[in-house]
Every structure is written in C-alpha cells, then in structure tokens.
Amino acid sequence: MEPSRDSREAPHDALAWCRAHDRAADAGTPSWRLLATLGGSGALAGLLLVLAWQWTTPSITAHRAQVEQAAVAEVLKVPARMDTLYVVDGKLTRTPVGDPAKLERLVEGFDAQGKRSGVAGRAGEPGFADVVSVMIGFDPADGSLLGMKILGQKETPGLGDKIEKDSAFVGQFTGAKAPLTGVKARSGDNKSQVVTITGATISSRTVIRIINNAVARWQPMLAAYDREAKP
Asked: What is the SS3 assignment for 192?
C-alpha cells in the first residue's frame, strides 16, 4: 500500500527540524528561541485564518442569499409578490422563532390579483458524491411542478453534473406532477415520468427523490396552514 502523504512527509519534517536545531545549536542559538519562533508562526497563521473567515463570511452569506432569492423568483416564474413562511415545530408560520436564517423556509408567490400562484422551497439530500441542493417551485394544490433549479452539487464532471447543465433534463420538470418516477423513456404524456440521464442515473434519481420527499412533506404543512388561515 502506498504510504500516505503525511506519513511520507512527517519523517522529513522531523529530520529538517532536527537539522535546523543542530545548525542553530552549532551557531549558538538556544532551543527555546526555535520553539518560540515556531509557536509564534503557528499562532500568526491561525490568527490570519480566523480574520479571513470573519472577513469573508458576511459576503459569502449575502451572495448565497442573492442566489437563493433569484432561484425562488425563477422557479415561481417571477410572481407579482412573495411572502415567506417559516417551519417551526413542523408547522408553517409567518412569525419566525429564533434566528430566521436558521429556519427552513417556504416562499409563497402571488399573482397581480393576490392569488397564490405557487410555493418554492429548498431541499437537499446526498447524491453520488455529495449533497445535492435543489430549489423547487410547485403548486401545493395538486403537486404539479412550476420548475426546479440546482443550487449546489459536486457530482461527477461530465456525467452527474448534467443534472444542472442538461437543459433537456432540467426542462422536463416544469409541468411534471409529483410524485415523480425516473424512467429511461417516457410512455406517452405521463406527467409523472422523468427521463433520467444516461450514465448519471444515480444523480438523476437523487433529484427526483429530493423533489418527491420535499413535496410530500410540504403539502400537508401547507394544507394545515391554509385551513388555519381561513376565517
């Protein structure tokens, strides 16, 4: 078995330190000064990492929020108005409890007449390589999809990443009706069938599974919310 990089380099690092120690000793440099130099360098590197993280985190968070907001507008076909609902204790509410950024959210889209035109939400599950995140737009009344957009994936380049880049695959979700079924060839005009990508069946079925699980979970919550909202 090929030794790991760490195991190969560790003896060399130790040997280099010993040689530096010997040279320093020959030059009359005390050991405590070498240790202090190493400790100071490590502390400085750690401090720089913390500062970089603190400096970049707000920008990264703001960018993610912009991307997610654009995805919501896209899958809801640019509604006239949008309202946010928060999932608290398995129920939907307009009033968040605690930090809203940490709560699962659904966004209602409304047309110019004030009628709800659809609902969008973010969901994710493990795919072939990592978690696949999807923004889903759907009509809660019958489970028909308004659209979907991949927000994050690390699937195999050239194969699995087609779930995001293959317009034919992505486009067939608009107008489809959950629960979806992955097939190699659609039979007739079955709106519940989605043709999977050749060579990327696992990634294709991951997207289908994410949508099915999310819609199945959100529909009852939205139905309960609508019942309670009625006068």
From this structure: coil
